[in-house]
Amino acid sequence: MVLTYHSSGVDDLSRFAEVFLAALPLDANVRFEAEMGAGKTSFISKVCHELGIDEVSSPTYSIVNEYKGDRLVYHFDFYRLEDEDEAMDLGIEEYLDGPGLCLMEWPERLPSILDDQSPLLQIEVLNEEERKFILSF
User: What are the backbone angles phi and psi of residue 103, rounded to the nearest 5°?
Assistant: First the structure.
């Protein structure tokens, strides 16, 4: 199944965040693919807001942030990982196999760990404000 959404700005993302959450199982592992600055963390913030989580920050340096709201959410940013061994040392398998919604930025950094069958959200930059979101699962 593929869902597509055209956003005209950050304020326009709440509607798609609702659709995104309704389409996924409670304990999904979602891969986010987009260029730097495309809005991955901004969209994850909107998703978390829909779950009653207001304080969301990029886990660029911590690799993972845990949020508790209506659902347990793990927000990963794998950009700074040197190799897949770092993810294994972090305990990535326990996160992926356990309860909670795992939202993963830069999943291409872990090609042999992450399941290509898990949902994928691609964000295409159309211009400075507009984005196209493509959720495949």
Answer: -110, 115
For 103-113, how does the pLDDT look when each residue is reduced to its tens digit (9 = 90+)?
999 999 999 99
Closest CA to 127 of 36, 7, 3, 12: 7
Residue whose C-alpha is closest to residue 106's, from 82, 90, 71: 82
pTM of the full structure: 0.93
76, 66 in Cβ contact below 8 A? Answer: no
CA distances from 89 to 7, 19, 95 (A): 37, 34, 12
Q: State how far the Cα of 117 lies from the Cα of 11, in Å rounded to an integer.
A: 30
Tell me: the pLDDT tens digits for 6-50?
999 888 899 999 999 999 999 999 999 999 999 999 999 999 999
Whether the CB-CB separation of 48 and 30 falls below 8 Å is answered with no
